[in-house]
Amino acid sequence: MEGGTEMKVMTIVQAITDAIDIKLAEDPTIVTFGEDVGVEGGVFRATEGLQKKYGEHRVFDSPLAESAIVGSAVGMAMNGLRPIVEMQFCGFVYPAMNQIISHAARIHNRSRGRYKTPMVIRFPYGGGINALEHHSESMEAMYGHIPGLKVVIPSTPYDAKGLLISAIESDDTIIFMEPKRIYRAIKQEVPEEKYSIPIGKAKILNEGTDITVIAYGAMIREAQKAVAMAKKDGISVELIDLRTIYPIDKQTIVESVKKTGRMVVVHEGPNTFGVGAELTAIINEEAFLNQEAPVVRVTGFDTIVPLPRGEHHYIISPEKIYYGIQKSIKF
Amino acid sequence: MEGGTEMKVMTIVQAITDAIDIKLAEDPTIVTFGEDVGVEGGVFRATEGLQKKYGEHRVFDSPLAESAIVGSAVGMAMNGLRPIVEMQFCGFVYPAMNQIISHAARIHNRSRGRYKTPMVIRFPYGGGINALEHHSESMEAMYGHIPGLKVVIPSTPYDAKGLLISAIESDDTIIFMEPKRIYRAIKQEVPEEKYSIPIGKAKILNEGTDITVIAYGAMIREAQKAVAMAKKDGISVELIDLRTIYPIDKQTIVESVKKTGRMVVVHEGPNTFGVGAELTAIINEEAFLNQEAPVVRVTGFDTIVPLPRGEHHYIISPEKIYYGIQKSIKF
Amino acid sequence: MFKEYSPLDDKLFQVMDNDGKIINPDWMPDISDERLQKAFKDMLFARQADLMAVSYQRQGRMFTYPPNFGQEAISGGLAQVMRDQDWLVPAFRELGAWLAKGATLKEVFLYFMGYEDGTVFKNAKNITPISVPIGSQLIHAAGIGYAVNYKKEDSVVYAIIGDGGTSIGDFHEALNFATVWNAPVVFVVQNNQFAISVPFKKQTRSINIAVKGIAYGMSSIKVDGNDLFAMTRALREAEAHAKSGKGPVLIEALTYRRGAHTTSDDPTKYRTKEEEEKWSITDPLDRLRKYMVAQKLWDASQEENLLAEYKKEIDRQFEEAENYPAYPLDDVFRHMYVDITDDLKEQKVEHEKFLKWKEGLK
Amino acid sequence: MFKEYSPLDDKLFQVMDNDGKIINPDWMPDISDERLQKAFKDMLFARQADLMAVSYQRQGRMFTYPPNFGQEAISGGLAQVMRDQDWLVPAFRELGAWLAKGATLKEVFLYFMGYEDGTVFKNAKNITPISVPIGSQLIHAAGIGYAVNYKKEDSVVYAIIGDGGTSIGDFHEALNFATVWNAPVVFVVQNNQFAISVPFKKQTRSINIAVKGIAYGMSSIKVDGNDLFAMTRALREAEAHAKSGKGPVLIEALTYRRGAHTTSDDPTKYRTKEEEEKWSITDPLDRLRKYMVAQKLWDASQEENLLAEYKKEIDRQFEEAENYPAYPLDDVFRHMYVDITDDLKEQKVEHEKFLKWKEGLK
Ligand SMILES: Cc1ncc(C[n+]2csc(CCOP(=O)(O)OP(=O)(O)O)c2C)c(N)n1
Ligand SMILES: Cc1ncc(C[n+]2csc(CCOP(=O)(O)OP(=O)(O)O)c2C)c(N)n1
Ligand SMILES: [Mg+2]
Ligand SMILES: [Mg+2]
Known about the structure:
The complex is a heterotetramer, with 2 copies of chain A and 2 copies of chain C. Helices cover 36% and strands 20% of the residues of chain A. Chain A is α/β, with parallel strands linked by helices. Chain A folds into 2 domains: 7-191, Thiamin diphosphate (ThDP)-binding fold, Pyr/PP domains (Rossmann fold, 3-Layer(aba) Sandwich), CATH 3.40.50; 203-329, Rossmann fold. Chain A has a 7-stranded mixed β-sheet with strand order 3-2-4-5-7-6-12, sandwiched between helices. Chain A has a 5-stranded mixed β-sheet with strand order 9-11-10-13-14, sandwiched between helices. Chain A has a two-stranded antiparallel sheet with strand order 1-8. In chain A, α2 (50-54) links the parallel β2 and β3. The relative contact order of chain A is 0.12. Chain C is α/β, with parallel strands linked by helices. Chain C has 2 domains: 7-327, Thiamin diphosphate (ThDP)-binding fold, Pyr/PP domains (Rossmann fold), CATH 3.40.50.970; 328-362. In chain C, 44% of the residues lie in helices and 9% in strands. Chain C has helices at 33-58, 72-81, 95-101, 105-113, 136-150, 169-180, 228-243, 273-280, 284-294, 303-322, 330-333, 342-361, and strands at residues 87-89, 157-162, 185-191, 194-195, 198-199, 219-224, 249-254. In chain C, the strands form 2 sheets. Chain C has a 5-stranded parallel β-sheet with strand order 1-2-3-7-6, with helices on both faces. In chain C, strands 4-5 form a two-stranded antiparallel ribbon. In chain C, β6, α7 and β7 form a beta-alpha-beta unit. Chains in contact: A-B, A-C, A-D, B-C, B-D, C-D. At the A-B interface, α4, α6 and α10 of A face α4, α6 and α10 of B. Bound molecules: thiamine diphosphate (TPP) (2 copies) and magnesium ion (MG) (2 copies). One thiamine diphosphate sits between chains C (93, 132-134, 162-165, 190, 192, 194-196, 257, 261) and B (35, 64, 66, 88, 92, 95).
């Protein structure tokens, strides 16, 4: 950002509130709703204070019905609004799948561009918060596989604000997945004013020469620890925050792997048919001759995320990422 | 099959009816239902004649509600039945996603094995029949990514019968996807008696030495044409029918690619996060040093399947598969 | 009216009987003679187009088509109330309503010939595309209605669904959201007694569909959907209700799908000729014709000439549709996003490379 | 009873008033003194366990817990009707019902401490695991009920849901399937007036929840859910109805969630102390105690001793749960399938390799 901009220390969840706040103030066609979004300000407080500020017509509670929340947003969008809807958890989006796949992702194509669906479907995802069943899922690959959607995941307060503003301003349907494990764990100076970060662009967090590590969301923090471990052992890691799951920023990734020759992908969701598979395919297609080792996937198991007492088995530790790095280096 | 077995010429859809018929006759805990499944015998006639034979309690129409069809099957399974449910098209499964992901795939794990869900969710998938929107989808990768499901796709009448019998006899929840484009296009001699084909095993349809082509469902027929084209040009293709999308038969695939050094994956569904990506990742992990060229993905676009007049752009021709083979060979 | 015809009593709101006699003059809607003549002609045209669509399909000139035969008075009623600023949120069996809203027959043909272009309805204001996933469009109607209130527009949203569609969760959620939001939506259930092969009595044990409104505190009524006057009057009352801020209305329009579900369906598998004949007596066009002839508003002897004219026009539009330009490759990609992705651009380029290569093969 | 208390009149079925006086003796259920004493004790125990669960959680000894405080008479009523062969299909706020069905408190604690083992309820017959996705379990109940009919079993299925849950599509589909199938299911809606922070009046415009049964032709009734006698009687009538092949029943049990939604919720954000106090007068245990003391069936002075005993027992079970063995890695994998996949076996082996390597790091 330019010098002179006022900065404020924010958590990810505050950055999200701030992005929605700025856009609500600026654009009267924006509304936001979902279960507990109004009076309560969301179960994670992502819309805290917004109903008071903008009124019940713009920030409101809906009945408990995910299909109707997404589907009515589609209708609102067709009639000129720009809705932001909250699903309470990644594991509770499924009742809305038909509206997401069959309509939110398709109305623009079906109507050959006559109708747009400028809407954001945002929800917390991922494990590590000692939650009940269905509260720890990471289904980004599923959304990435659905034609017509774009899927965004921030990993810092700065990115959360900039990416969410882009998502809200996008005329496409955006799935915006928020790493709830680090909703409040990271604090960062974030510009108070409006700014945006382009959707579809990854970010190199750490330049390196020996190996590329790709992660996103809550896994960035774990990957950074692994990078530090590797550094101690003299391994120079290029760490990339994917930021957008679809469309994937192939260029940044491929260039990096062309340089390093090695890649580790880290994600919380299930391994098979996961994001790691697609990234491997991209590297295989675009940087095959540069690959010095197979891509290593450090991912969730093909299992349900266990309840809290078993979750440590599932969750990805910095050590496990470093193990993946070693595996690649030693190949 | 052993000699002496009575054989009958069947289409895929007849083989499916036959499998259900045999199991209904044999096991009184089996029921089958869904929209138009009873009197009508299904819109594709997969349950034709079965209501007359087994009565309305075992073969019946349900109200129009996919979530309830799948969810009530989960309940029936918990109370000792073995339901087979039909979803009318792959594009109409979405209202049932929550019941599939949150329950059918999970009850066994959630109850630590106390309850099983021995049920089959079967539906036609794929394009090429000049259908309306939502009638041409291929979402196998999405189901494969969901922990707790197994996903099976037959490509011939023989396999359809043997795999469906295995699916019905399995104590797990099976997603059984039927290539409707070739429901009636292929006729084959099929044993009249009961037999089963193991879930999770791919089949080598054609041995070859230069390149491995992996396909399934309706794409097998197209791939076979491509294999013939390649043969003319002196390329020896090993053609593998994947048969099961999850769990993937890694062994057969990896062994083949270790031999041929090259792989082309063919599927109708969207490319990104599709089955091709996972197969590439497997090869990259398990046969990296044998890979002589990047894996080539010959797949659907990341688009909605166009309406009939545009579908020829989308659909995969033998030529396109052969183009993929060439691309790999010439790498 | 919603009090007089409480769905709890399972009374059917009718104005005209099967012989075209006005049996309920108190509720006769006010329609001018010209308007009525136009309504009849439009229904006649829609029926003719529908019959011809089925025969085009039989000739292999169209892929699949869902007949409207016997259900024309529902669309006919909608035509009486829909204004430009009102929304029509259809399913897929609303030929007359599409045309009334400004869609062209050519577009409808294009759609069922396999072009997305056919569901853009580009000259029709405020109409959503044909919606195939059963029930899902009703929720859009609730959202559109929310936006109507939000923007303080003077619009009513007409959302259409079939009897089978009342079983799916989205029906419930849509009606609930619409009432909670006081959205100006008129839900019209075309109860044509079948969901493909499944008869209405297998869908639900409720005494009728209109009573389902009670679950949402919604005003609702069961109407003879083959009676243009009853449909018109009920829709007008519903319109007034919705516009006055009293919230949505549910109209069950009782009718009968005289044709097949679609051209790929064979109803003889699941219903009897007797049943079909029984219902043919209630045919909406026949009834209206009887009324109009009796009122000297219609001269049945002219009908043949008119039909000949219609046939020509329908053929003309069909042929125009048949001569529609080929579906360009670009159309597969370009509408997927407002802001198209590099991924899609690459996939298109790669496909074009293949096409070039394929050319070389020959 | 379903006629006398038609939900259309929005009459609340009560037997006992807030002072423990029987105001509706005609409908007083037949319960022996011993049974009643046991019922009261069980409710007392459940409440004590519930309060202690909240405090264990505050001490950081449990992850999250959904309080039942104020809703005990609903589970108490279920305890009067559920037999071994009957099914209980719960959501997640049915402590008393779980215990009545044969679950142990230790198991419940285990679940909310983060062990799937806690929802196996291995000594409870015919109980489904705790179900978190709102509304989805009701459909299982319909399916279980279908199987009951199919196998000609003598079982009733009791399915539980909250007021918020009545908004989701699965509620609608479940009630519809159950009636169409004539399944012996008793649906009990715990209308505790809140779905987390959202008050019931924002969920729907229907006059009450019980009327929603009309949409399915289902017998239904609105019951004072804080009145053990009313709940018991309504459940018995529903049981008889379901068993006699007349199909399912919908019971709206009006109550109030006196505690927080879960231990991570703060109700002061969205409701007033006054409202809470108003509802405290209807507390199900207080009312029952008053009745029993008046009938000389209960000596309130003993209660303290009893509670002390209960506290010990609850602590004991909690400590047992706290000493539960560690969650083995194998448990993450082994229940995923009956027939486990090679893929999962490999993932486990690979993870074990990593663990060994990690050991070596230190
Ligand atoms: C969610 C969903 N499930 C299944 C289908 C397949 N299908 C198309 S039309 C139809 C029956 C619809 O019946 P009804 O709602 O009565 O409308 P009608 O066809 O009679 O106009 C079905 C099951 C679908 N389109 N969408
Ligand atoms: C499908 C779904 N959406 C959202 C949630 C998150 N959630 C958990 S409890 C709850 C409120 C439930 O309210 P109600 O049905 O009244 O039951 P109560 O908690 O009052 O017992 C919500 C929204 C969920 N579990 N499932
Ligand atoms: Mg119908
Ligand atoms: Mg509640």
